Amino acid sequence: MLVTYLGHAGFCVETSRVTVVMDPWLSPTGAFDCSWFQLPRNHHLADLVAGKLADSGKERFLYISHEHKDHLDIDYLCRLACRDFTIVVPCFRRDALRSMLADYGCRRLISCSDEQVVPIPGGFLKLYIDDSELNRDSAILVEVEGQQFLDINDCKLYDRVPSIRRQHRQLDVFASQFSGATWHPTCYEFPHEKYEAVAAQKLSSKFEAVARCIDTLQPRVYIPSAGPPCFLDPRLMHLNFEPVNVFPRAPQFLKFLQGRLRHTGTMLTEMMPGDVLDSATGELALGARERLSEEGFVDYIRAYAAEFAPLFQSRTEMARRIDAEEVFWRLHRELEHKLEALRLLDEIPPPLYFFLEEITTQALRVDFAGRRVEVCDSVLPPTGFYSITAPAWQLVPVLDGRMTWEDFALTFRVRLKRQPDMYHTIVNGFLFMEAQDIAEFCESLARMKEAQARMPISAGGCTYLVDRYCPHQHGDLAEGWVEQERYLVCPRHGWHFDLANHGSCTSNATTINAVCTTPASSSIDNNPVVETRCVAAQELSHLD
Questions:
Q1: What would the DSSP string read from start to end of 67-127?
Q2: CA trace torsion 247, 252, 256, 258 (10° rounding)
Q3: Mind listing the domains of the chain with CATH numbers?
Q4: What is the DSSP string of 326-377?
Q5: How many whole angstroms separate alpha carbon 120 and alpha carbon 256?
Q6: pTM for the whole thing?
Q7: pLDDT tens readout for residues 348-378
Q8: Which residues contact residue 21 at a Cβ distance below 8 angstroms, ignoring those fewer than 6 apart?
């Protein structure tokens, strides 16, 4: 089995009988309205991938993991002249991904449920799905001619990795995201010191989660993938050069793994777009057109950005022609529409203030308690609020239905603030979900509460009884770990719950309701990161 790296989260898996292309992101103008660009450049591989998908001598499959535009490159797919291949996608509750591809004209579109097996020549594909309303993503296992490749891209199913390991004992190649890819803390108005502290903590949790996956899976080869992108828009350029943020490059992560992994039999390899790995031998053929080095990174980014300077200059001129006042009132109607669909649960969120950069005297205030959207002055209260600021021109494609709210947030052309600095699930869902998804989002939160289970866990000389599932996106805390003998860490997003403080989350107002019941029967080991001791965790059934 040959594995060609296509850049970012893209791979091409081949044998003499079958080709499986995964998440090809090859368009030269990047993703999320030209805010993210591929790092390193991989646009030259577009013809190579088109040729492989047109090779009638093999069965051909194209897998798209989820809707994010650094995975679903619809512009590139629409340029393909030959579409005689099968597309495999996850079956999410929201059918936007399937709808976008329904009339594509390929040979067949297969929409897979969780752990569904798709036969291919010499083996099969299997998808693992995370569909938790706030997050829709999937991972894929390719088994062909006795070789196995697990690609979880940026799907945070870390709590399911032990189950995958039990199902598939042999794993030749494992690929996963190792960097951040979201708006927190990137878009938040934090003081510099806090920004770096939050970023460092998130990065540490991500590194640790992936390292634990490698320790559990024990693959022959690990490939870091699915990030980070680079940012060529002048208003985002600084993100490339910040000394501490959530966008580490592969060498930093590989250096961490070299000192962290307990399973030392895994080969760690950084691949560049065009490199080819032989999964049977572990040999790497260096086929990349260019190799990005840490020493040449700054010059590389500046040269890359210079190529696109005319594009961003034209966008600046376009933005000047936008009627911000019209956008303001269109946004007012859209927020009212979203608020109508929101069924408030036990907790009333603080008000949300929405500002446009071009309008300095007014804002829109979403009053969740009063269930209304009102115009107010632009002065924020001293506390008890969320706020978002964005350019009017960036909202136009959202209000026109050409961009989702989540894609809008991922442009990183927004500024966010909250006082106090506490995450609130309902505000996050309201702001970054589509209006048609909000009612189901509320129902999903209610189901999560109803399905909550309890489990025992030992830490710091005490056995605690805690909620088993994280209140964020229902990550299985039985697969988490304990740090500093008191903090239970969720394996999906790294949320820390203070067992010695009733299970309260250290970053928001949620809790796992920890109760110390009896002294622990055995001592905690003294590793820097202490393993979770989930008493009888294997006896508890997994709840997806």
A1: S-TTT--HHHHHH-S---SEEEEE--SS-HHHHHHHTS--SEEEEEPTT-EEEETTEEEEE
A2: 140
A3: 2-309 (3.60.15.10), 323-445 (3.30.1050.10), 451-539 (2.102.10)
A4: HHHHHHHHHHHHHHHH----SSPPPPEEEEETT-SSEEEEEETTTTEEEEEE
A5: 37
A6: 0.89
A7: 899 999 999 999 999 999 999 999 999 999 9
A8: 6, 10, 11, 12, 49, 52, 53, 60, 61, 62, 63
